[in-house]
Write a structure and sequence with these properties.
The protein is about 75% helix and about 0% strand. With about 50 residues, the chain is mainly α.
């Protein structure tokens, strides 16, 4: 998966990461949802590892 993200970063440089990649490929609403889900997962799951 990191190879895919690296490739997208070359073509779509942005600080927002997943939001930009998903919103450019699928759509703004799904990109927005993906960004928030990723943030919530990061806040809720990572501390428990």
């Amino acid at each position: 998966m990191s190879v895919n993200i690296g490739t997208l970063a070359r073509h779509l440089p942005s600080a927002s990461g997943y939001f930009t990649y998903v919103s450019e490929s699928i759509g703004f609403r799904i990109g927005w949802l993906t960004g928030w889900v990723f943030d919530l997962a990061y806040l809720l799951i990572v501390p428990f590892q």
